[in-house]
Specification:
The chain is built from 13 helices and eleven strands. With 317 residues, it is an alpha+beta fold. β6 (228-233) and β7 (236-242) form a beta hairpin.
């Protein structure tokens, strides 16, 4: 056995490369893959009972050979998967189609679980009679965690935890397209913290950062589940308000403005009061996309600034 096979080269254990060996002597295939550590590889009989158990299967599941051999295939799954009938569905699919491959949760030890990439192939003898299955399983929990972390890093504003400008734009455009398709109302709001430069100048950028985190939290608490919130940059935030035409959007933004003004920023400099100006624009024939809605909301925002700050204004032609 080569080092790549022992570690984690799927090609070295792929049952579809060893159909002849599996047909003539399944146990010889099982012996060949016994020492492999990078994958769980084992045989299952036609009734769904586990026949063999390699080193990789023990490492991934925390289950020993004596614990699992002769047990039903369902013993490899967590309670939720068994309750949903997943083991039987997988065996049935593989028997009908000859092959199954997907990601799902598997049992680890007594009460743990891991995310698995599992492939299941039928095993037939030299006469073509179905005699069982061979499964190859790899633990992809760490891979998926890394991918999730990278996705979060790429799409999230690190200071506030809100979607960053790029991710907000992506989600907003999808929601606007949905609203246009179904003829639903939708509004976009832009919020800018009033006199934010003074906060930084008087108390330092650390306090300014705390103030922005506070604003983000007020927005999160005020928003509905369907609303989309993002930080565009600096002290500027944006909101997409699905199923809200101008008046409901103004009312929502008004409540948010009051909630922010009545709250206090808990900072090393002591409790701080901050306010924000908000501009609102509503989806229309003249403003059919995100750039035009943001442009109008931005103009309404600066109208609020000119009229004294700490207020909500809307775009009016």
């Amino acid at each position: 056995m080569t080092s790549s096979a022992a570690g984690g080269d799927l090609r070295a254990v792929d049952p579809r490369r060893f159909t002849g060996l599996l047909a003539e002597s399944p146990l010889a295939y099982a012996a060949m893959v016994q020492s492999i550590s990078g994958f769980g590889v084992y045989l299952i009989d036609a009734r769904g009972n586990i026949l063999t158990w390699n080193h990789g299967a023990e490492l991934q599941t925390g289950l020993t050979h004596d614990e699992i051999v002769r047990q039903p295939y369902a013993a490899l799954f967590d309670d939720a998967s068994r309750a949903a009938g997943l083991p039987g569905q997988i065996l049935g699919f593989a028997k009908y189609h000859g092959h199954y491959s997907d990601e799902h949760w598997r049992r680890r030890g007594a009460d743990g679980r891991f995310q698995a990439l599992a492939t299941l192939d039928i095993v037939c003898d030299t006469q073509g009679t179905h005699t069982g299955f061979v499964e190859v399983v790899r633990d992809i929990t760490a891979d998926r965690k890394r991918e999730k972390a990278l996705y979060t890093q790429a799409t999230t504003d690190t200071l506030t935890g809100l979607p960053n400008r790029g991710h907000f734009t992506e989600k907003a455009e999808q929601e606007i397209e949905r609203a246009r398709r179904y003829g639903d109302p939708l509004s976009v709001a832009m919020l800018d913290v009033d006199h934010f430069k003074a906060v930084n100048d008087n108390y330092g950028h650390h306090v300014g950062d705390i103030a922005l985190q506070h604003v983000a939290e007020v927005l999160r608490q005020s928003a509905r589940k369907i609303d989309i919130i993002g930080r565009l940059g600096g002290e500027e935030f944006a909101m997409v308000l699905p199923r809200a035409n101008t008046q409901p959007a103004i009312e929502f933004c008004g409540r948010t403005r009051i909630a922010l003004y009545r709250s206090r920023v808990d900072s090393p400099a002591g409790p701080l009061q901050i306010s924000a100006s908000i501009g609102v624009a509503t989806l229309s024939r003249e403003a059919p996309d995100l750039p035009s809605l943001l442009e109008r909301a931005d103009k309404a925002l600066y109208k609020a600034k000119r009229h004294g700050r700490n207020r909500v204004e809307t775009w009016l032609v």
